[in-house]
Amino acid sequence: MSLRPILETRAAQPHIEGAGVKLHRAFGFQDPSELDPFLLFDDFRNERPEDYLRGFPWHPHRGIETITYVLAGSVEHGDSLGNTGTLGAGDVQWMTAGSGILHQEMPSGNTKGQMHGFQLWGNLPASQKMTAPRYQDVKGTEIPEVIDDDGTRVKVIAGGFWGKRGLVDGIAADPQYLDVYVPAGVRKTLPVDTYRRAFAYVFEGEAAFADASAPQGVLLEKEVAGQEVNIRDLSGDRTLVRFGTGDAINVQAGPEGVRFLLISGAPINEPVAWHGPIVMNTQAELQQAFRDLRNGTFIKPAH
Question: What is the free-text note on the cofactor (predicted)?
């Protein structure tokens, strides 16, 4: 087994998107090769309705996929193809924009006014940039979950893990999207296929992600539930951890346990021409997309 080294840890940064939604961006609009095939990751979490209710009004996408995972509250969505619906707490929507779609996403809070969700953008290879748009909606009650003897829980949104397989399929990047909870003081090694680029995003509690070059079991400074906990270099709430090459990651939960997303995918390794919500391979294709928007030909007729 080869543990993946930690290339970088960084805090998600405050950002305003849509019509004034306050969120935290872990990565996006930087070097697209860093986490290829993923382009952007946003954490939209608020307890004040004025910080999210204006939502994300009508906007275009082409050449990418948007993956929305709701933890609290709900998101109403509609698009230029006539699709409408609502994502509730625990639900996932994997939207393949393909050749082009106009849509809107309008969040609402729960009974306490809380809204929490994530949106990930995945790139599409050139061969699929202009495919017909499609949705894969998965209810939270349908997401497979595995529970280990030590209390570790993993929801399998996409890809395979510990004998379970997520319902999202047919994605070129062969993604693995996991929602992982590790109890306080537990150290866990989680497999990640070597060919995938991988990152973790901590959103509850804190943990130490062991670097392959660091000795194990050092600098033990606390005891939780009778177990020593390595609290060196703890990654806390809203922290991105980017991993290098290997076939597993090692994580040790902090004093209150940790919950994080573990996401990986096969790199596409193609040129990226990117402006706003449209991602193509060349500047000529990008310019054509915006001409299509101006000319009213952005949405391709169904065959």
Answer: Binds 1 Fe cation per subunit.
